[in-house]
Design a protein that fits this description.
Keywords: Cobalamin biosynthesis, Glutamine amidotransferase. This is Cobyric acid synthase. One of its GO terms (biological process) is cobalamin biosynthetic process. Pathway: Cofactor biosynthesis; adenosylcobalamin biosynthesis. This protein is an alpha/beta fold. It has two domains: 247 residues, Rossmann fold (3-Layer(aba) Sandwich); 212 residues, Rossmann fold. Helix content is 29%, strand content 27%. A hairpin with a 3-residue loop joins strand 23 and strand 24. Helix 1 crosses helix 14 and helix 6 runs parallel beside helix 8.
């Protein structure tokens, strides 16, 4: 392939959230990297509860880290300069260049936008100066006209950086032609000039059935359909927000090369408590990649009654979600489970909940709050956030890596009353008492040897003959990224994509007035 001009860039926008922007961006990065192009992902503004820590201790959206892996480069703060982490329906933590700077609501965020646009454009220019190509991902929809005046992630970015824009629509939702045409029609003339083509995502069936609609869409808009991407069963990747396992069924083990599907009484069953503000649910992706392991979300006591392991994941609102745990009846069900010696695992915020008390004047302002009392632990929140990658050797002798993103500082104290005796070390900085374990590290279960040993212990406690397969999670993830690269290479008009990276949006694209045709 002819290498695109240095600094070539385009923006992948979508008709709605979850239309396929993150996946298409990752696929383009993988395809370009395999063609020998040094490429980087970029998302100006991300609203997500799934995040990761870069090598220099910056916090960015997990999707951008996944896209960086697809590109074969190290993730960095410049790839996601603005991150919003919702803590309630109205407030979010504002993270800029990897560091938290404020708590904002929707109206309070607007005054930050002018300053943030400058930061965003500086980061994009920096990436374009160091990489051959930059694939930018939009946020939500570019047709959110109520937000257009202060937009820094969609058409505001495209206009400021002179980017051609691909718009992807999800046909699985229905109404994809209306969504694509309507997106264009709602934009003003200057914004429309940047819309260079359409991509339809998640198509199932014979693509020839779409042909009449595709040709009509091209005729009505004057823009080409650059590809129809088929539905890929079993393909799930790091996502921007809390993963809904009910809409993402267990992957096909044969697709990952891990053997035949496992069913029957020795299948290991895992329930993940679905907190209202759960975060970093991608911690459980490695469990889902294990043949013979079923993972589901749980919001009621009945949903954890028959499982072998309950996981309390991370959360952006520890005290609030702990109160929800009690209202739902899950707190009592967890106490009964612990009394019976059945396995429970807490990660970060979920770990903090398992302790005797939480002292929080920072995140919730609630002060001292009783925990579940299942581990001899006190957590005190501090204003500065712990951010960092970690490595070490687990208590059972396995080398492990992970990362930390937290305001809470857990302290183990065996002298605390009511926790049923002393605790043993778990992982590296975690603790275990009976069947209850906890850690502050995200990503711990991605360590293959540690995960196998942990699951073997869970199976023994459950009386199952389950034995973990020899699964390398890094290889599983790499195969999925390769599948995305193949998807782009096989189903996208890559010649036009190359031209867009080389020359930008074609001149003279027609304006489509609102209400047309």
């Amino acid at each position: 392939m002819t290498r695109p001009a240095a600094g070539g860039a385009l923006l992948v926008a979508g008709t709605a959230s979850d239309a396929g922007k993150s996946v298409l961006t990752a696929g383009l990065c993988r395809w370009l990297a395999r063609e020998g192009v040094r490429v980087a992902p970029f998302k100006a503004q991300n609203m997500a509860l799934n995040s990761v820590v870069t090598a220099d201790g910056a916090e960015i959206g997990r999707a951008q880290a996944m896209q960086a892996a697809a590109a074969g480069v190290e993730p960095e703060a410049a790839m996601n300069p603005v991150l919003l982490k919702p803590g309630s329906d109205r407030h979010s933590q504002l993270v800029v260049l990897g560091r938290p700077v404020a708590e904002v609501d929707a109206l309070g965020y607007r005054p930050h936008k002018e300053r943030l646009l400058g930061i965003v454009l500086d980061c994009l220019a920096d990436l374009r100066g160091r990489f051959d190509a930059v694939i930018c991902e939009g946020a939500g929809s570019p047709a959110e006209i109520n937000l257009r005046a202060t937009d820094i992630a969609n058409m505001g970015l495209a206009r400021a950086a002179n980017l051609p824009v691909l718009v992807v629509g999800d046909i699985d939702r229905g109404g994809v032609f209306a969504a694509l045409f309507g997106t264009l029609a709602l934009l003003d003339r200057a914004d429309q000039a940047h819309i260079a083509g359409w991509v339809i995502n998640r198509f199932r069936g014979d693509a020839r059935l779409l042909e009449p609609g595709l040709r009509q869409l091209e005729g009505l808009t004057g823009r080409p359909v650059l590809g129809v991407l088929p539905w890929l069963p079993g393909l799930w990747l790091d996502v921007e927000d809390s993963l809904d396992l009910r809409s993402h069924p267990d992957p096909d083990p044969e697709a990952d090369g891990s053997g035949a599907a496992d069913t029957g009484p020795d299948r290991l069953r895992v329930a993940v408590v679905r907190f209202p503000r759960l975060s970093n649910i991608t911690d459980l992706d490695a469990l889902r990649a294990e043949p013979g392991v079923s993972v589901r979300l749980a919001t009621t006591p009945d949903e954890i009654a028959d499982v072998d392991l309950v996981v309390l994941p991370g959360t952006r609102a520890t005290v609030s979600d702990l109160a929800w745990l009690r209202r739902s009846g899950l707190a009592d069900a967890l106490a009964a489970r612990a009394a019976a010696g059945l396995p429970i695992l807490g990660i970060c915020g979920g770990y903090q909940m398992l302790g005797v008390r939480i002292e929080d004047e920072i995140e919730s302002g609630a002060g001292e709050v009783p925990g579940l009392g299942l581990l001899p632990l006190v957590t005190r929140f501090a204003a500065d956030k712990v951010l960092g990658r970690r490595h070490g050797v687990s208590a059972d002798g396995h080398p492990v890596t992970g990362y930390e993103i937290r305001h809470g500082r857990p302290t183990v104290d065996d002298a605390l009353p009511g926790t049923g005796g002393s605790a043993a070390p778990f992982a590296v900085d975690g603790v275990r008492r009976g069947g209850v374990s906890g850690t502050s590290w995200h990503g711990l279960l991605e360590n293959d040897e540690f995960r196998r040993a942990f699951l073997t212990g869970v199976a023994a406690a459950a009386g199952r003959s389950f034995h973990p397969a020899v699964t390398c999670f890094a290889d599983v993830r790499a195969r999925r990224l390769d599948a995305l690269g193949d998807l782009v290479a096989d189903h996208l008009d890559i010649a036009t994509v190359r031209a867009l990276l080389d020359r930008g949006a074609p001149a003279g694209l027609p304006f489509v007035p609102p209400g047309a045709p």
